[in-house]
Write a structure and sequence with these properties.
By secondary structure, the chain is mostly helical. Helices cover about 55% and strands about 0% of the residues. The chain has a two-stranded antiparallel sheet.
Length: about 160
């Protein structure tokens, strides 16, 4: 359809879009119905990833030999790469220090004090102390949950006995 006026007036013509109200737009499937009900299989990998792995697999042995040779020749970057793969740095270590028994949420304060004391003495690093304190916080929440559950159960029992 050709229309005079509007934005296209400079050129003398404006084209109007056809009315598409009756044509399906937007969601092509009913709610809950997929166009691919089976979906992508679990564990399926992208073609590019598979191709890259095949290329690397073919040259993996040669690459490892080249890195090892460079490390033996004194290339510190290659040596670090080899050592990081053979013996990666530990993410954490077991820590041992005296901590009081925690049977109620009230006991957590003493335990946190023990953590701070161990850190002050140098038995724990600040990062280790923060990790232990996080575990203590989880323990506190668990103990509080049990205590609240017990109190609610006791109140429910008292209410039931009064009725």
């Amino acid at each position: 359809m050709i229309h005079r006026g509007g934005i296209g007036e400079t050129f003398g013509l404006t084209f109007m879009a056809a009315n598409t109200a009756g044509i399906q737009r937007g969601r092509p499937f009913q709610r809950g119905q997929s166009g691919n009900p089976g979906g992508k299989p679990k564990g399926a990998r992208h073609r590019t990833t598979v191709a890259a792995e095949l290329l690397m697999q073919e040259d993996a042995e040669a690459v490892v030999r080249a890195v090892l040779a460079a490390a033996k020749d004194g290339d510190m970057t290659a040596a670090r790469l080899v050592l990081d793969r053979i013996a990666p740095p530990r993410k954490g270590r077991p820590v041992r220090f005296a901590i009081p028994e925690m049977t109620s949420a009230r006991d957590i304060g003493a335990a946190v004090g023990a953590v701070a004391l161990a850190m002050g003495r140098g038995e724990l690093t600040p990062e280790e102390a923060a990790s232990v304190a996080a575990v203590l916080e989880i323990r506190r929440k668990a103990l509080e949950t049990v205590e609240i559950e017990n109190r609610v159960a006791a109140l429910e029992q008292q209410t039931a006995e009064k009725k």
